[in-house]
Design a protein that fits this description.
Largest sheet: 4 strands, antiparallel
Structural class: alpha+beta
CATH superfamily of the largest domain: Multidrug efflux transporter AcrB transmembrane domain
Order of helices and strands: HHEHEEHEEHEEHHEEHEEHEEHEHHH
CATH topology of the largest domain: Multidrug efflux transporter AcrB transmembrane fold
Strand order of the largest sheet: 2-3-1-4
Shape: elongated
Number of strands: 14
Number of helices: 13
Strand content: 15-25%
CATH class of the largest domain: Mainly Alpha
Radius of gyration: 34 Å
Length: 437
């Protein structure tokens, strides 16, 4: 072990030279410490805060919907063509997919070091080509730029006296659009209630009596729910725009749609069907604490954002939106991750303060030196601030795991400071005794 034996004295010599250099240039060392503390304080403010570390894979989700199709058809005509064409994207680790009734999900997993927005742009480029291989009218879309731990806030609507369909319409067409403007929010996923729709219940006997095919009814309803533009003409120096207004606004508008003629007499929808306002098919319900169904939304945070800032920004936006809601409608927070985030941060702060007080008492009691206690107390915040510089450099957020590691490291810093101060006092006392002799 000759190499090991030689390296010991060299390391000791380097440490002695470093200590000697620091003592000779103490003001430079103080300036470096102050600069390091200032840089670390800035890094603490810039470091993203979350409750749990994001260990999810770096993936892009492609979602395709084709209503009424079986899982096997979705697999053969949608999922397989997409998977086979998305496999050639650079820096992809794996491509996974699943097919279900009327829906297809493709998960493209990239290398961990790949930028998520670069990955999304590559997937979008490849989808432009894969679109031609899918059935007509089917368009795949990218999922939100969030992760599996991006659900930072859940809320429900406290709207007594308002039916579930009206609550869902309020959520989809007013609340959701307002909350999506908050910086850092990727998506607002609505849940609960009924998605309102016009439902036409066709009587097959009447359809057969008038000898009208079902496809003709579908075409008539679709073509009569549209606004068309005409042209502009001037009269007496005034310009007029001719338009055809045809959007459906009530049940009567649907009932009056003409689907054919028999001996110059129009056959309308009400002659062969009944029209009603109902809700879309639901695969489940959302119950709130056993008190009944509720309507609300899930706030999905964008990749790499500060969870604590996003949650507080969403809450501020909720206060603005609440002013425009109908009387008696309020927000109820069902899940709020900021409580866990603030508890974790508060725990680290308490640990830091407790250890500073403990160290001060120990050093003063055993060494009777307030200057030694002050030197240990100063190095604790500087060391912690410097650790956040490294956290930002490696893209690690302030979460339960990283903050716990810092809290545990405080004990090592304190132990090292006490040992070094005690050793310095012992050497100084020995030097003073030698001088007296």
């Amino acid at each position: 072990m000759p190499g090991t034996a030689c390296s010991g004295p060299i390391i000791i010599k380097m440490i002695n030279q470093l200590i000697s250099l620091s003592l000779k240039n103490r003001y430079i060392v103080l300036l470096v410490a102050i600069a390091l503390f200032a840089w670390g304080s800035y890094a603490i403010r810039e470091n993203p805060i979350d409750a749990i570390p994001d260990l999810s894979e770096n993936q892009v989700i492609v979602f395709t919907e084709w209503q009424g199709r079986s899982p096997q058809i979705m697999e053969d005509q949608v999922t397989y063509p997409l998977v086979s064409n998305l496999q050639g994207i650079p820096r992809v680790k794996a491509v996974r997919a699943t097919s279900m009734f009327g829906m297809s999900f493709v998960y493209i997993v990239f290398d961990d070091k790949v930028d998520v927005y670069w990955a999304r742009s590559r997937v979008l480029e490849r989808l432009n080509y894969a679109q031609r291989l899918l059935p007509e009218g089917i368009t795949p879309t990218l999922g939100p730029d969030g992760t599996g731990v991006g659900h930072v806030l859940w809320y429900t609507l406290d709207a007594r006296g308002i039916d579930l369909g009206e609550q869902r319409a309020l959520q989809d067409w007013y609340i959701k659009l307002g909350l999506q403007t908050v910086p850092g929010v990727s998506e607002i996923a609505s849940f609960g209630g009924f998605e309102k729709q016009y439902q036409i219940n066709i009587d097959p006997h009447k359809l057969n009596y008038y000898n009208i095919p079902l496809s003709q009814v579908l075409k008539a309803v679709k073509s009569n729910n549209n606004d068309v533009g005409g042209r502009k003409f001037e009269m007496n120096g005034t310009g007029y725009i001719v338009r055809g207004l045809g959007y459906i606004k009530s049940l009567k508008d649907v009932e009056d749609i003409s689907i054919g003629t028999i001996k110059s007499v129009p056959v309308r929808v009400r002659d062969i069907a009944t029209v009603q306002m109902g809700g879309d098919l639901r695969l489940g319900i959302f119950d709130e604490n056993g008190t009944g169904e509720a309507v609300g939304g899930i706030v999905v945070m964008r990749y790499g954002e500060n969870a604590d800032q996003v949650i507080h920004a969403v809450k501020d936006k909720m206060k603005e939106i609440e002013r425009g809601l109908p009387s008696g409608v309020k927000f109820k927070i069902a899940y709020d991750r900021s409580e866990l985030i603030e508890s974790a941060i508060s725990s680290v702060k308490h640990t830091l303060i407790e250890e500073m007080i403990t160290v001060s008492i120990i050093v003063i009691l055993f060494l009777f030196s307030w200057r030694s206690a002050l030197s240990i107390i100063i190095q604790i915040p500087i060391t912690i601030a410097a650790s956040f510089i490294l956290l930002n450099a490696f893209g690690i957020s302030s979460n339960i795991m990283s903050l716990t590691g810092i809290a545990l490291a405080i004990g090592v810093i304190v132990d090292n400071g006490i040992v070094m101060v005690e050793n310095s006092h012992r050497n100084l006392s020995i030097a003073q005794e030698e001088e007296t002799l």
